[in-house]
Specification:
homodimer, about 110 residues, Arc Repressor Mutant, subunit A, about 15% strand, DNA-binding, HTH_HxlR (chains A, B), WH-like_DNA-bd_sf (chains A, B), Transcriptional regulator (chains A, B), DNA-binding (chains A, B), WH_DNA-bd_sf (chains A, B)
DNA sequence: CAGTATCCCCACTGATACTG
DNA sequence: CAGTATCAGTGGGGATACTG
């Protein structure tokens, strides 16, 4: 059954911030740690670092360290990460659909 | 920004079991409470009931009580719930893609 | 059959402080 | 700048028992 696939996706995308992080990487393509912090004000450094590590471990984001002082680290989607975009888009489309049906229905 | 949409989706689909439940309703169309229990052995009654209430409250699943003894309650996707299917499919496709790229890559 | 009601735990998350 | 270390709290979720 395809339920295995569901579990896979769930395991990889679970976590309060991952989809939000992916969304920002999706629309801006390359972001530094501090830029992600600014983009998602509610997230703590610890959580940002942790979720980025998870996403990196799962092969969804690419972490690039530029050997400089001060340090510069950039995050971008990997190839397979890019391919998540259509699915995230479908989710957003559905959200829009739902919102309009909610408004139209009253 | 479309980030609002992300938050919406997150709020509605959050919870360890919702997407799994939706997947089963998606493939079987109508299921009784006990059928969902069998389909998702790892879920507890409490969680199943709770997540179904959430999904019902958010207008994604339709709960139908048949006045009988013993009780019979059926769950199905609403109209807007049905429209989530393409997005879930995209997620599953991505999972398959990812799995094959993982296998092929070694 | 289809749920509630209770109790309880620990994993996720946050806040703060520190560092290469 | 880009993290790690440490401590502490909360509530999401599990186990069990009970009910219309």
């Amino acid at each position: 059954m395809a339920a295995d696939g569901v579990e896979e996706v769930l395991a990889v995308l679970e976590g309060r911030w991952k989809i939000l992080i992916l969304f920002h990487l999706f629309s801006r393509s390359v972001l530094r740690f501090s830029e992600l912090e600014k983009a998602i004000p509610a997230i703590s450094q610890k959580m940002l670092a942790q979720q980025l590590r998870d996403l990196e471990r799962d092969g969804i984001v690419q972490r690039t360290v530029h050997p400089q002082v001060p340090p510069k680290v950039e995050y971008a989607l990997t190839d397979i990460g890019q391919k998540l975009c259509p699915a995230l888009d479908a989710l957003l489309e559905w959200a829009a659909l739902r919102k309009s049906s909610l408004d139209g229905g009253r």
